[in-house]
Amino acid sequence: MAKFVIGSAWPYVQSVPHLGNMIGSVLSADVYARYLRLRGHEVVFVSGSDMHGTPIEVEAIQLGVDPQDYAMRMHGIVAELFRRWNISFDLYTHTHSNTHIEFTKDFFKKIYENGYVFTQEDELPYCPNDKIFLPDRFVIGKCPYCGYERARGDQCERCGRLLEPRLLIEPRCAVCGAKPEWRRTKHWYLDLRKLEDAVRRYVEGNKELPQNAREMALGILKEGLRPRAITRDNKWGIPAPFPGAEGKTIYVWFEAVLGYISAVKEYFEKRGEPDRWREFWLDPSTKAVFFVGKDNIPFHVIILPALIMANGGGYTTRLTTSSTEYLNYEGDKFSKSRRWGIWIDEALKLMPVDYWRFVLVYMRPENRDVDFTWQTAVEVVNKVLNDDVGNFAHRVLSFIKTRFGGVLPGPGPSTPPDAEFVEAVAKYVKSAEAHYDRIELKEALMDAVEIAREGNKYLNLRAPWQLVKERPEEAGTVMYNSYKALMALAALLYPVIPSSAEKLWSMMGLQPPVRWPNADPAPGIKLGEVEPLFKKIDKNELDAMLAELRRLREERWSKKYPWDQVVL
User: Fold this and answer.
1) Was 156 annotated as part of a binding site?
2) Range of the domain at 386
3) pTM (2 decimals)?
4) Is 143 annotated as a binding residue?
5) Is 173 one of the annotated binding-site residues?
6) What is the Cα–Cα distance from 51 to 79, expressed in whole angstroms?
């Protein structure tokens, strides 16, 4: 049994996450955490709301509300939505918790004492209209490398290059569009130059990094790491702990990535075991896996390891990311400003949560950008979830119910097709296990679906409805093998659609929890109540869903306050 810290990128509470955010981080992390627990590993799965920084501060000022009240209100809404999506966090917290604030201050104080922080006066962008210094992300302009028109001052979303506001062509304030002025101010910098060689060795030696993370990180390292400002002139944030830094706060990206550590600490504090977090983060054998979109790669693959190295506190460096490409919506990127996409609160009003979880993992953009379309989503529900998975489960259980009195028969005589089916199921279980271990969640789900498809073909080939009349013992063999395959299917599906897998497990007459298929079922198990697991979505239902989505969209954008825009 191994120790794992699983983290999903901390969502910014300025708005509700959309489906792309969900599959890029939170849902994928949940699937992997559930799989690890299923295999008996010790897992702490954490995340939280990213509460601080200019976006919240500026919007709160514009709305006439207190930034902390705004952030806490939105945090409660996002936490509730994740609960409704059946996300199995051990702790979902936020970056304004006392534990996170004190941990972050102590962590950076140690980095300062270790000689990795220096001060520098610099000219930084200042918006004369909004009368605030603009953090990197609040300056937008043309990327000097790829020409993308809406590159941010810290990173280009298209090519992934780390940037600085001065590098942007035709920079402008992301809040109001005004041309920023450059004013002198003093800040505290992380000296990444001192850490560059160590970070390079970490990236080059980390065989578990996905290809997109490795390539992006090595590309950044090839250009050389430059110092990055730790502090900001924001009021809403964690006070910088450096001597003379009164009035400065810590840049949200530097403190949010430390949340993976502080949240584990907070989790064990809440359990009354305040020192147990050390058994995870200070154990070099612990593996920490962060689930992020590709735009977050630099901060997880370069900045976080650099911070850990600079702190020198003995934290595990078995770090990796599972970094997806983008999920787009009907041919274009999700966009709140353009009102394009589906947000996770809206989604729950349209289809059951397990349908969404299945569809999103089935479409997961593991190696390339993927386009969500309603046509594809409905096909996945109707042809894969219902016709392949649901149909196989119902055929097996309803046959045992009607022809064997609801009791699992024992295996009788076996024929070559029986042995071939058993072998095929074992092959797909082994393949799915390997894919789950490599965090290839879409491929693992495909293997589970293949078990159902093989099962349906097996039933058609062996025709137990005929065998039960002529050679009932052979019919018993077919149903025993099919039931065993269904056990494997339920286990492989559990990380993706836990509620449906638990329902299937119960219909099979098995005691919870769902278990990995390591043992054969005992003949004589009495089935529970049997009913279809899923149902198809017809054209009228799809039309009704799209009409409801339009209604929800009009309702959402008619409200002034973000918390009133949420559909609960």
Assistant:
1) yes
2) 373-507
3) 0.92
4) yes
5) no
6) 13
